[in-house]
Amino acid sequence: MGRYAQSYLIAGIASVGGLLFGYDIGIIANILAMSWFRLYFRYPDATQVGVITSFLTLGCFVGALGAGHLCDRISRKRTIIMASLIFVVGSLIQAVATNTGFLIFGRFVNGLAVGFLSQAVPTYQCELAAPEVRGRLISLQQWSITWGIVVAFWICIGTSNIDSNLSWRLPLYLQIIPAAILLVAMPRMPYSPRWLLLKGRDQEALLVLARIRSGGDMSDPAMVQEYKSVREAIEIENRVSLKSYSELLKFPIRRRLVLGILTQMFQQLTGINTIMYYAPSIFRRAGIGGNSGPMIAQGINGIVNVLFTIPAILFVDRWGRRLTLMMGAIGCGLSYLILAISIYLNSGTVTKIETVNNVQLTTVSSKIVIPPWVGITMIYTFVASFASSWGPVAWIYPAEIFPMSMRSKGTSITTATNWFFNFIVGLVSPMLIHSMSWGLYALFFVFMVIAVIVIYLFYPETKGRSLEQMEVIFRGSVWAIRDQSRIAEELNNEKQNKERYQNV
């Protein structure tokens, strides 16, 4: 780890941006169920709850679209700093909200900040990371999201016992703290060396690379070789004028854009935010009673999310992206299938007719075939499957596949896709939970089956490859399963040519 210590530190600080989003997910899931919140906002119905929840993600969508231009213009680092300041403002608006409109506006402002961060942070981490640990460093973003969720859950459980509006206002105030930490720490972090090279600041880029790769040793051969490779790639891209958004729709970058969009789309079609936003009501339907029971069950859900993200952080650079995504989709899909079956079997009724004193009495009750703990366990199994796969890898894959000059623009589109589907899922989930019941989880199962097929057929493996080697990986057939031998041969030839050059 010594060689990558600086990279871990920088990526860890940047990943606090993920904590902001995770915290917002955690508090809204529980605040919506708080009695003082419901009383203050006059018991919002399912449609109002969907709007309150989803306007954060609408802001994220807008923010993510604008983040690509900002990252290229003012740098990844400054975009993260600006987003942190916006998040502080949005948090204050929510905390002092006196009506639903004010609350929704505050969530939209926070969404803008999270949209900027969700694009800028993985891009920044990706460009600072060595190929051997790139997946691990970008996974820190997702792990930070899970920590934000679990911290918010347990804070809300604690404040739910406050007998006033402070029970829901205090958690909203507290989300300012991680934003302030990011606001103070990021100015001390370096710029992305690839962004510096893109701006013609070659000497600064060399100094940053030496700092994060070789402890400041400017003559380290591996560091010097990486510097030359990145600079050569940027010079080639400049010659072919890869600059505008329209280039994303042209061969060969179009294929990468499609895969990035599909990755982010499928992450949301796992239904993760249906579970995270509305789990307290789902747990209540599953049979967990009491005022704090569903919230405690959701708190445990958050802990599961944190713990099962750790294997992905440790092993995603060994497992690879393809296998991790396919196994995750299988785990999520099977969990949903069993959950849907258990809800379906328990949805029937039993009619009992008795005659008492010549009067017929009819009693209708629910038929319990599958014990409630089965459904609850499947929710935890689903979260564990998601956390160890789609949670981190959906941020890793889009961030690493685009060429340098188009990375910010490409990831702004793919990240906006994530937030668009997040918005749709968050908006309609309250209504679908009530209207479709088990059918909603069966639908998510179908999405996961489709995801496995698409990944197997079309996704090339990117683990252990430099960002500049993506040109080789995405040069051939769209049928990834047919193209593996060609990729291996070309990359091996490239490696041998570099070794000959170094020996000379």
From TrEMBL:
Q: Where is the Major facilitator superfamily (MFS) profile domain?
A: 10-463
GO MF annotation terms: carbohydrate:proton symporter activity
Compartments annotated for it: namely: Membrane
For this UniProt record, the keywords arranged alphabetically read as follows: Membrane, Transmembrane, Transmembrane helix, Transport
Q: Which domain of life is it from?
A: Eukaryota
Main subcellular localization, coarse class? Answer: membrane
Which InterPro entries does this chain map to?
MFS_dom (IPR020846), MFS_sugar_transport-like (IPR005828), MFS_Sugar_Transporters (IPR050360), MFS_trans_sf (IPR036259), Sugar/inositol_transpt (IPR003663), Sugar_transporter_CS (IPR005829)
Query: Which residue stretches, if any, does this entry annotate as coiled coil?
Result: none
Please give the start and end residues of each transmembrane region.
7-37, 49-67, 79-97, 143-160, 257-279, 299-316, 323-345, 373-395, 416-433, 439-459
Please give the PROSITE patterns that the UniProt record associates with this protein. Answer: MFS, SUGAR_TRANSPORT_1, SUGAR_TRANSPORT_2
- State the membrane topology: Multi-pass membrane protein
Q: What's a GO cellular component annotated to this UniProt protein?
A: membrane
**NCBIfam families assigned:** SP
Which PANTHER family does the record match to this protein? PLASTIDIC GLUCOSE TRANSPORTER 4 (PTHR48022)
Q: Which family does it belong to?
A: Belongs to the major facilitator superfamily. Sugar transporter (TC 2.A.1.1) family.
Protein name per the record: Major facilitator superfamily (MFS) profile domain-containing protein
What is the source species? Smittium megazygosporum
Output the lineage of the source organism. Answer: Eukaryota, Fungi, Fungi incertae sedis, Zoopagomycota, Kickxellomycotina
